[in-house]
Automatic annotation (TrEMBL):
Any GO BP annotation: xylan catabolic process
PROSITE patterns: GH10_1, GH10_2
Enzyme class: hydrolase
Active-site residues, record numbering mapped to chain: 233
Keyword Oxidoreductase: no
Designated name of the protein: Beta-xylanase
């Protein structure tokens, strides 16, 4: 029994992976990836600052290894991410006329997608382009090219690999205004004859939010807009978000505040159970909508490696994933597996 076998009739089960797993030094992670998952996403190594750090320099060494790992293990391989305002190489900010920027985006996407044509199955083409109110976020791409940079990005990706699944990926896509914005974005592309295949709903969620109803409403809305739904970047934080709780002021004085690192040694059984229940609830919802959902990807393999130990404040001990710091399955893992028994 494994996650990938248990849900083989439902959707791909993916995980974001890092250098250690890719180059084989993190053998425990690698074992888990091979045993439990049938899809991988590179957590960082394909982001612009890594893969295209200078105008004429592309770093393909790690991405090549990443893709080979996926191929060897017969996996659904994801590319993350072509166009994003964050983790961008600094030099891109100096490009300030639209012809050069269009040329640059085209080159960046064509080179990368083209290199992995027929190998990378699904691309996060544009990442996090929306504000919380559903409008388009300011970025160097929007500033220099205008709103149609999205169209350019998707068109170019489709041209470089017509078979790849093309995804718009973002967080908080269960929030009504942002959801409407994402649907407008999809419709815009569709109306202009541009290929977009899926919405990636990043699942950076907590024990209460979003509610099952909010998640379901969103899955149905994206499905109705004519795209597949992917749950990307799934992790359930068990720690309070100081911004939500107390406002920005407290969070700035956060360091050393024990309250903010409530479980430094281990997760109490009561919360362990809550997490298990939460995962079971969302997975039974996903399974119910398996005709609409193509893939569910966890943002990391095990708790120790999760970005949530460092966000929104550094140095907390978080427990958001299915495997613990010793790479052992948690109750949350069992609760998901039990759904199919
Ligand atoms: O590898 C260096 C290390 O050598 C150095 O000592 C250390 C010092 O800060 O930094 C390390 O790099 C960090 C990297 O994670 C690996 O841990 C970067 O500073 C840090 O910025 C980077 O954070 C990543 C973040 O994206 C950057 O925006 C997280 O790992 C990654 O999980 C996160 O993923 C994003 C998705 O791509 C998009 N959606 C949201 C999601 C969470 O923020």
């Amino acid at each position: 029994p494994s996650l990938k076998n248990t849900f083989s009739y439902d959707f791909f089960i993916g995980a974001a992976i890092n250098g250690g797993a890719i180059n084989g030094s993190d053998t425990l992670a690698l074992d888990l990836i091979r045993r439990e998952f049938n899809s991988i996403t590179p957590e960082n190594i394909m982001k612009w600052e890594h893969i295209h750090p200078f105008p004429d320099k592309f770093n393909f060494e790690m991405p090549d290894k990443y893709v080979r790992l996926g191929q060897k293990n017969n996996m659904h391989i994801v590319g993350h991410t072509l166009v994003w305002h964050s983790q961008l190489a600094e030099w891109v900010a100096q490009v300030n006329d639209s012809a050069s920027m269009a040329g640059l985006l085209t080159e960046h996407i064509t080179k990368i997608v083209g290199r992995y044509k027929g190998k990378i199955d699904s691309w996060d083409v544009v990442n996090e382009a929306l504000n919380e109110d559903g409008s388009l976020r300011e970025s160097i791409f929007k500033e220099v090219l205008g709103d149609h940079y999205l169209e350019l990005a998707f068109r170019t990706a489709a041209k470089a690999d017509p078979e790849a699944q093309l995804v718009y990926n973002d967080y908080n896509l269960t929030h009504p205004e942002k959801r409407e914005g994402a649907i407008r974005l999809v419709k815009n592309l569709q109306e202009n004859g541009v290929k977009i295949d899926a919405i990636g709903m990043q699942g950076h969620w907590n024990l209460e939010r979003p509610t099952l109803e909010e998640i379901e409403t969103s899955i149905l809305a994206y499905h109705k807009a004519g795209v597949k739904v992917l749950i990307t970047e799934l992790d359930i934080t068990v720690l309070p978000n100081p911004w939500e709780l107390e406002g920005a002021e407290v969070s700035q004085n956060f360091e050393g505040n024990k309250f903010m690192n409530p479980y430094p040694e281990s997760l109490p059984d009561s919360v362990q159970n809550q997490l298990a229940e939460r995962y079971a609830d969302i997975f039974s919802l996903f399974a119910k909508h398996r005709d609409k959902i193509d893939r569910v990807t966890f943002w990391g393999i095990n708790d120790g490696a999760s970005w949530l130990n460092g966000w929104p404040i550094k140095g907390r001990t978080n427990y958001p994933l299915l495997f613990d710091r010793n790479y052992r399955p948690k109750k949350a893992y069992e609760s998901i597996m039990k759904l199919k028994k």
